[in-house]
Design goal:
heterodimer, A: mainly alpha, MetI-like fold, 80% helix, 0% strand, B: mainly alpha, two-stranded antiparallel ribbon, 2% strand, MetI-like (chain A), cell membrane (chain A), transmembrane (chain A), transmembrane helix (chain A), MetI-like_sf (chain A)
Chain lengths: 276, 285
């Protein structure tokens, strides 16, 4: 028994050391270099800064006429609208797809499950938004983000609705509850745990999305945080201090989210992937 | 009780109409536009010319091979590494939750940021990787500048960022295994390796299948990490289908770009669907 204990302690130490070296050191590297002056940061050393240059951070914010502020505004709006829309449309659809079994729901199930695998057709989507005269607008970007997340979210909601006893609805129906009212008052509140998962997972993926804004949301006034970081890479190629300061700024919201919702994020990802 | 009346079909309408307009219709018309030369406002039909060009031009056809290497490389490494990390973390060590959180966090960092950081770490002369190698007397490679190496360097970064998702899926699978099996095996005198091979691996098969499918499809579709680390370079050495789609779009060859998109779709259809069928059939046994 004693040997076993010592063995485990060794495991703890080795595990922590490996995790620290492989997964934490890169972040320390980024943080430390974001606080160096330009010359020192460009040496790309892991060492602590000789002097802490906090003004890197203000410089990143003021760069290109405060584009980072525009980017944060756009990214936050995009995230809020997309996640809000997704909750409404996917909770309704997931509920019906779980409860009602007929040809229509079978077809809907099939297309959404296919959507989990198939890559989006990008240029035709731009063509559609142009045809609707909404290309390059926040509205079209929100719609596209929603369309791309629908399969995953419907799957989460459908799975969770299966755990809600059906008697509740039958009772509500007999009591003469109107259908939309019943959904809003009885079902939706019961979906709270999965809604929380949907909020967190989608917020992370929409906020971190780079590819879709690159295609569908071009132009300076449409900057998002990920696009801004990408453009900084071209512009400040030789100023790693500023680049890393930008990385830290856009990573902090995710870090806060992770510290608060650690368990929910991890469980949500497992639930989503195992059912798929 | 009339089920259809309690569960109105119009509840599906908002989700399905958005999905139809912004996903299904674009996908359907992509097959047509991949056979045209077009610029959003007008098109001329050109049959399969785009596909013929795609496979005859090495800078383009090479991306299909790279996409396969990338998908197999990332999913293979994740399937194996994540399994051992998961076994390690479920072996009763006390710092399990802390280590899991540390391993998981990179997953929430934006891909562009990860790409940028690793580009700096992989700098041929100043980068931390090569400084460590030099410290031990070796001579580090040009991770991202070497034609034969660039794609593999990006694969390693992808695994660093994404191994955690696979790990937590495995952990969920391993934790759900009935403890009685292990006790019975211990009474029969099985050693650790035998328990791993005969209990853990077969019984976390469903988790393993999820990991394989998810990371394989993710690998086939991957774009942002490659784009932010190498831009498909040097030359076109690390171009994958998704980066060719973007490059041809940026160059104004919309028909060719759409053809690349369709090839990616067909590749996923040809590989991922049968793979999933195959894995699920194994699971039942």
């Amino acid at each position: 028994m004693k040997k076993n204990k010592r063995f485990r302690l060794l495991g703890d130490i080795i595990g922590m050391a490996a995790a620290f070296l492989i997964f934490v050191v890169p972040f320390i590297f980024i943080l430390s270099n974001s606080l160096k002056d330009r010359r020192e940061a460009n040496l790309l050393q892991l060492a602590l800064p000789e002097t802490f240059v906090w003004k890197n951070y203000s410089e990143v914010f003021t760069a290109n006429n405060y584009i980072l502020l525009t980017a944060f505004k756009n990214s936050i709006l995009l995230t809020v609208f997309s996640v809000g829309g997704l909750i409404i449309v996917c909770s309704m659809a997931g509920y019906i797809l779980q409860r009602r079994k007929d040809g229509l729901t079978k077809a809907a199930n099939f297309v959404t499950m296919m959507g989990l695998m198939v890559p989006p057709a990008i240029l035709p989507t731009i063509w559609i938004t142009q045809g609707l005269h909404i290309d390059g607008t926040m509205f079209s970007m929100v719609m596209i983000e929603i369309a791309l997340q629908i399969p995953f979210d419907i799957m989460l909601y459908r799975g969770f609705v299966g755990t809600i006893p059906i008697e509740l609805e039958e009772a509500g129906y007999i009591d003469g509850c109107e259908r939309l009212g019943m959904f809003c008052k009885i079902i939706f509140p019961l979906l709270k745990p999965v809604t929380a998962t949907v909020i967190i997972l989608n917020a992370v993926s929409v906020f971190n999305d780079f590819t879709n804004p690159l295609y569908f949301f071009p132009g300076r006034k449409n900057a998002t945080v990920q696009l801004t970081l990408y453009n900084f890479m071209g512009q400040y190629q030789s100023s790693y201090n500023l680049l890393f300061a930008d990385v830290i700024i856009i990573t902090i919201p995710m870090l806060i989210l992770f510290i608060i919702f650690n368990k929910r994020i991890v469980d949500g990802m497992v639930a989503g992937s195992v059912k798929g | 009780m009339n089920r259809k009346r309690i569960y109105p079909a119009w509840f599906l309408l908002p989700a399905m109409s958005v999905f139809l307009v912004f996903f299904i219709i674009p996908m359907a018309v992509s097959f047509f536009f991949s056979m045209t030369v077009w610029d959003f406002s007008g098109f001329t039909f050109c049959g399969l010319d785009n596909f013929a060009l795609f496979f005859s031009e090495r800078s383009l056809s090479h991306s299909v091979v790279n996409t396969m290497i990338y998908a197999i490389g990332t999913s293979g490494l994740k399937v194996i590494l994540a399994f051992f990390i998961a076994v390690f973390l479920t072996s009763g060590i006390r710092t399990k939750n802390l280590i899991r959180s540390i391993v998981f966090f990179p997953n929430l960092v934006s891909t562009v940021a990860v790409g940028m950081a690793f580009k700096a770490l992989m700098h041929p002369t100043k980068g931390l990787f090569n400084q460590i190698i030099a410290f031990f007397g070796g001579h580090g490679p040009d991770w991202l500048g070497n034609v034969d190496m660039a794609l593999y360097s990006v694969i390693l970064t992808d695994v660093w960022k994404g191994v955690s998702v696979a790990t937590v899926i495995y952990i969920a699978g391993i934790v759900s295994i009935d403890k009685n099996y292990y006790e019975a095996a211990a009474i029969d005198g099985a050693n650790g390796w035998q328990k791993l091979k005969n209990i853990t691996i077969p019984l976390c098969r469903p988790a393993m299948n999820s990991v394989i499918i998810l990371s394989f499809i993710g690998g086939l579709r991957s774009f942002d990490l490659i784009w932010s680390m190498t831009g498909g370079g040097p030359g076109f050495a690390s171009d994958v289908l998704a980066s060719v789609v973007y490059k041809q779009y940026a160059a104004g060859f919309y028909g060719l770009s759409t053809a690349g998109n369709v090839i990616m779709l067909i590749l996923i259809g040809l590989l991922a669907f049968p793979l999933q069928k195959f894995l699920l059939s194994k699971e039942v046994e």
